[in-house]
Each structure stands twice: as C-alpha cells, then as structure tokens.
Amino acid sequence: MFEDLEQKIQYTFQNKEILLRALTHRSFSHENPERMIKDNETLEFLGDSILGFIISELLFNTYSHQYTEGLMSKVKSYIISTEILSTKAREIGLGQHLLLGRGEEKTGGRGKRSLLANTFEAVIAAIYLDGGLEQTKNFVYRLFKGTMEDVVEKDFHFNDFKSLLQEKLQGLGEIPPDYGVILEEGPHHQKIFHVDIRIRGVAVACGSGSTKKEAEQDAARKAYEQLLSGDLDYLLARRENPVT
Predict the structure, then answer these.
(1) Is the Cα torsion angle 195, 197, 203, 206 positive or negative in sign?
(2) Which comes out higher in pLDDT, residue 12 or 160?
(3) Strands, E assignment, the chain
(4) Which residues contact 61 (CB under 8 A, 6 or more apart)?
(5) Does residue 90 carry a pLDDT above 90?
(6) Domain carrying residue 84
(7) Are residues 46 and 75 both part of a single domain?
(8) Is residue 48 flagged as an active site residue?
C-alpha cells in the first residue's frame, strides 16, 4: 500500500499504522468513524518541533562559525515555511497518498499548500516514532541540505526583503507592491517612520524604522513572511479583478 512512498522517502516503516495515521486528514476520520483511524494533527505538532530542531542543529553545525544567530534564524524560518514544506511534499508525491474526506477531496485538498506542509510534518513525526532520531535526521538531510546550501549562498536576500518580495511576486505574475509613509513621529533627530505595504491595492503589513528605507524593509519582511505562510493566498487568488 505504501511501497511507492517508502521508496521515495528511502525509509521502510516497521509499523505501517503510524504512517497511515500520518497520512490521514481529520476530514477522513470524521467521515469514517467506523474505521477508527486517528487523524494526523498531533503528529503534525510533534513533527514541526522535530523538524525545527534538526534544521537548527544542521545550521549550527554547518554555519555557526560564519553566520550570526539572526541570519540562521531567517534561513530556518524560510526552510520550514509552508512554501518549502509543500514543495518537498510534492517532490515525494505525498498528495496522492493522503486520506481525505469527500468535501476536502472536492475542494482540491491534495494540492493545498498548507495541507501538504502539515502532512509532511506528520510524516517526519512518524519516521521519528518508528525509527528514531537518526533515521529522521537522514531523511531531513537528504531533502533539505541542498535547499539550505542554496539559500545560504544567497544570504544577501535576507537583508533585502524588498527585493526578495518583489522577485517572488513577479514570479507569481503579480505587479510590484506599493509602499507609503502613514506616520512620522518623534523629534527631528530621532524620527520613527511607519510605512504600510500594499499588494493589489490592499494593505497587508506595516513596518517601522528610524529611516523610510528601514521601515520599508520591515514592512516587506512581514509581507514576505505572510506570503510564504499562505496568509496572502486569498488576495493573490483574486486575479480576475486585477488592481491597477
């Protein structure tokens, strides 16, 4: 039943039930109570923590001699974002193995980024519970080490969120965002600027800083994090009414 998935993740489960649970969305459990299969939400909780630990350890062991805590935190946040996790889930064909309820199936659940990312975390927890920490590390290293190296090589992006956000939006076929000062406060020599950022004419974040440029970067960072987490999907989906 799971041979194809096990081959792709290069791990064979001793306990197939834990993998079955990792692949079970709550919609399936609710619609099929007679099968008595628990959903994957608690595994997702565990997997999130395990993945964060492994990525943090890998970053520390590889880059702590040359990068600051701040940069490593930014790299980690990017790597464990919904966008990256859902991409990794697609690489191993996770969507086709999900157990979904009829409603979730009809609304395209197998392709939803948040659902794929959550299930990916549940699978990490399942590997940990079935095979231990070293097996889990091996799995994470195989899938993420190359991604981490690519990100770190481009660490200049993590100091320029305006460029990073604009590149991401352009890749999605969107127009560049707009920035505007909404408030200046404090004496002339200690001014604090507050800037909002608008995507498709909608204000999505506000940033602050001692200069306009710093405030714009802060706003761009917050908007970029929302973009990665999927919080702006509702806005980007409205392509039929483009903002000009």
Answers:
(1) negative
(2) 12
(3) 178-185, 192-199, 202-209
(4) none
(5) yes
(6) 2-154
(7) yes
(8) yes
